[in-house]
Amino acid sequence: MELMTLTQFPHTPLAVPPLYSDALFQPWAYASMEIDAKWLQRETIPRVSALSVDDFIAQFETPNQPVIFTDVASAWPALRLWTDDYLRMHSVRAQVKVKEIKFFLL
Q1: Of 69, 41, 43, 44, which Cα lies nearest the Cα of 55?
Q2: Rounded Cα distance, 104 and 78, in Å
Q3: 3-state SS of the chain: helix, strand, coil percent to 5?
Q4: Dihedrals φ, ψ of 47, to 5°?
Q5: What is the number of alpha carbons within 13 Å of residue 9 lying toward its C-beta?
Q6: Band of the pLDDT at 10, cuts 50, 70, 90?
Q7: Beta bridge partners of 48
Q8: Cα(32)–Cα(65) distance, rounded to whole angstroms?
């Protein structure tokens, strides 16, 4: 039996048009992109207290910047009134309807 060599088989490269796939590109792009040092900081969203409406609009709403409001609820009467004992005393006969919601991932 005679052994065949590669030169005995004609070889022509397969012509494939340029291939683009989001499934292939995105993992590569995310793995090779540089990470901005700001993204690694823990406290990147400013926290403010007692901000006027005009200041909020100028500093955060107009430039579309996130903000965390602190001490917003500190003056609410519910914070003083709604203790565990108060809620037990006033809601012991309350009926609450609960509905199960199912989420499906594709």
Answers
A1: 69
A2: 37
A3: 40, 5, 60
A4: -110, 130
A5: 7
A6: low
A7: 69
A8: 28
Q: In sequence order, what are the beta bridge partners of 61?
A: none
What amino acid occupies position 89?
A: M
DSSP state of 4: P
| Residue 68 parent element (H or E) | strand 68-69
Tell me which residue has tokens 């579309």: 64
CA-to-CA dists, residue 88 to 11, 44, 82, 106, angstroms: 83, 40, 10, 42
pLDDT recorded at residue 32: 84
Q: What local confidence, expressed as pLDDT, does residue 53 receive?
A: 93
Other Cβ atoms less than 10 A from the Cβ of 18: the count is 4
Show me where the domains of the chain are located: 43-89
CA distance 74 to 79: 7
Amino acid identity of 96?
V
